[in-house]
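REVIEWER CHECKLIST
Item 1: Sequence provided? yes
Item 2: Single chain? yes
Item 3: Sequence as submitted:
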Amino acid sequence: MKAFIVFSVVLAVAASTAVESSNKDKRSLWEHEVQHESFHEAPIKFPEVKHVTVEKQVHVPYPVEVEKRVPYEVKVPYPVEVEKKVPVIVEKKVYIEKKVPVHVDRPVPYPVEVKVPVIQKEYIEVPKPYAVHVEKSVPVYISKPVYVEKPVPVTIHIKEHSKKSFWG
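Item 4: Structure as written out by the authors:
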């Protein structure tokens, strides 16, 4: 474990030391080409380009037209070449509906049987109510009382004793 700590301290010290910076100027590729051409030809002079900025006041927000190309499948029939040409027989069934007049001599009434359920009335004899005489109400004594359990919410207050610590 101690070796790891020593190693990490040495590594930190080595990383924090300054690296010598070189004062060499670097040439770009363009300078190299211009210098190379200077041996054979005159140096190339480029015209100066003036940049002009025009400010235009535009009310915000303003509509902007955006052209977005969305790929869409277009169904166009196109010929497909078939390697083997095989004759195929397709049967065509043709049905022709045509109204043909039929001569009927006279309309004949035919008996039609329709089964309809019919409710049969049944008469039931109900006895007529009659008066019943009750002599006297008799008091009834209950030897054992009946208790009905009903939950009642009860709040209990528990007092907490404050314990004194030994340290203060």
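Item 5: Key structural point noted by reviewer: The chain has two helices and no strands.
Item 6: Recommendation: ____
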